[in-house]
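Re-running the complex after MR caught last week's input typo. The corrected sequence lines follow. Everything else is unchanged.
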Amino acid sequence: MTLSQVLRQMMIKESGSNPNNDSSANLPDQDNQPPTLAHTLEEFKDCSDVTHESFPEHQVELIYFDQLVDKEKLSRHILSPLLTGTEQEVSKMLLHLQPFHTNSSKDLILNILAGGVGVFHGPNAFVFNVYSPENRSISQSETETVITGPHDAFTEQINTSLAMIRARLRSSHLKVIKLSVGEVSKTEVYLLYIKDIVNMRFVDEAKKRIEKIEVDAILDTNMIIQYMDDNKYSIFPQFLTSERPDAIVSKLVAGRVVGMVDGSPSAFTAPTSFFEFFSSSDDYYQRWILGSAIRLLRFIAFIITISFTAMYVSVTTFHYEMIPENLILTLTESRSRVPFPPLYEALLMEVTIELLREAGARLPTKIGQTIGIVGGIVIGQAAVQAGLTSNILIIAVASSAIASFVIPSYVMSASIRLIRFGLILLAGLFGNLGILFGITAIVIHLSSLTSLGSSYLNPVAPFEPKDWKDIFIRAPFSSLRARPTQSDSPNKVRNKTRR
Amino acid sequence: METSEKLSPFHTTIFIYMIQTGVMGLILPQLLAENFGTNGWITLFGFGILATLNILLIGVVYKLGQGKSIFRILEQSIPKFMLVPVYLALALVWALLGCMAGKEYILIFQMYAFPTTSPMEFNLILDILVFWLLTMGLYNIAKASTVFFWLIVWFVLLLFFFYADFSWSRMTPFLFKGGKLSLLESLDIYSSFVGYETILLMFAYTNQKTKLIKSAMLGNSITTLTYLYLALITFGVYSLEQLKSKAFPLLEMLAYIRFPFVERMENLLFGFILFTVLFSVVTYEWCALEMLKQVFPRLKVNFLAFMLMLSCFVIAYIPDTLNEVGDWLSTLSLIECGIAVGLPLVLIVVLLFQNIGSRPAHE
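Corrected-run output:
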């Protein structure tokens, strides 16, 4: 493309769309032939983990993946009749398999890959699901710990996770749509919603976005939501993820759509708002005053995280007059040995803290603790004694790091920590005005964001004061009567308790 | 990302308030003292009512035109080639007004906190923010204004600090004594209310539910009340002569506020005024952009917005000092007051002709 063409594209509106966009329509349907043993074996050629067993006396051939199947079920339903049974018992077994007859080679192969046993008997092929992969047991979530309330968390096995939701929501209105994503991985993705509570617009939109994904493999929920994002360039997560079944169930009954990916212990919910990331499910398990105080504390933590170090840089670089007389002595004394401008000093400390955090997260718990202690000494005492930084900066950096961990969502907390660097830079360049420029940019960006097409700043903009009592505080249950406006639920009332 | 959603009454009210308020609010008490003397703050009621009448005039256009955009109204009766120069002239006035409002804010900030830094560095960032907002479309601009409103509304609480220094005796029992009324300066006072006239271009972004005119009037009332409260406190804290001699009495008042851990926060607090200034600037630039969109329909909106902001940035180099910017702003405000009254009148005349023309003939 020449420069003039590029400029033209930037300046002038397009008059029409390209009619030759859809190339997928011409693809031939290659795998829709009747299944044959030879073709199936050819498909699984060089797959050393595939098991192929022949029973010539019964003219039966089996193909399956040993590690994916429930051996006990396989043995009881298929292997035992073949190994020890009479001709009559084998016929009976084959008769039982009739409902699982398949005419499509593609279908057979996909089902074998999903933990089925392919059974060939003469020209007939059956595929019987005996899927039961190795699975870890249900344990606590390590990223979303709570003090009160249920402690169980989803596992990587989708059936276990779905069971945990079904066990909490015994309603036939809980609907589950099964989709498959990943041209190679064929990962199962489930969309959950409660009929008559959810606004189907959001379900359709989520389904449409998942169906549009054309990628080789999807490995985690946090990966699929990036394909579904409204704004892919944003630093902020546009879907709320959680590993906690109680949190996900609360989102379902609030009228949100939930998505789960096989192989991932997190589920996502949408539409979501920026403020929802500051709520935790145990806010509801405590007395409302305590829950409200903690929510407010989280918002204060947010302000501390983004502004403390930036304010230090701004004040010590440009606005010394803002420091009261009795404090300025302490500050100048602590800064007198530091040879760098406050901006470098702050960046140095912030990067060190981020290094410590990342190292702590990657290492096993015991070594992680050691790193914490060593790091604490390095940044706490040694850095000050060596004259690399001032004590007051350490307090600012440490408070903003601690405050960032108060935010319950790890993804949101990480985004906010990154934004902080931008604000520190702006504070070093333009002082207080720089910080305000930064905050303005953040707010402008947040205002333009949407989650599944719904405003990310709901209920502040659009202004929905009714919802504030479940966003900034956690009002008593008696006053939380309606579902959030953002869900746009056809069934608005959720709590009819009289007292 | 432009959305087809229409403005809601609440957003419109807040948006109008955010457009109207700005740096002028800080200069207002001094202008009132100079022009009207003792108890000059009372005249703000009059200015507020004048603005309300002007909004009602725009309301007549809205009603007669049944919510049609002013471009449709004009282009239905007047050939496009005749309108293009008018559009360009309006675009120029609005672009300059936005540009100068921004530069004035930057210069004041620079004067207080960064005497050695080039104001154009700050101006560049402000223009980038304005450009960013422009690319988001009016609905998102209004939505953002609501968020910024919440970020600045707590300023009202700061005035509690001055209750101790406030004295009714400074008000004196005299009304409008010691002032020297100048028409141009009273227009400057009125210019702190302008901004509401931009609703003329918002017709297409509203529907019946928006209650555009009512929302604009409510927004204007909030502005009037805010100015009144600010002016009342300032008149009660400073004497008349002090007020006359201070360029930014409110900023100096803010410098008195002190907490145990922080004091002299005037530059931080003045920084917060950025939020309202931003919306005054972005709305005028948006109006200019709307005009340019009509003149150059084939060009992409983002490209037009970029060119507009680039021109604004270059023009902002011309006036160097706060006084020069003040002179530009006075002249532009005068023209803007003319537009605020003249444009609705022209539109009413055009609409009346259109309505006569479309009336079925009686036989």
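None of the earlier attempt is carried over here. The mean pLDDT of chain B is 90. Chain B touches chain A through 43 residues (CB under 8 Å).
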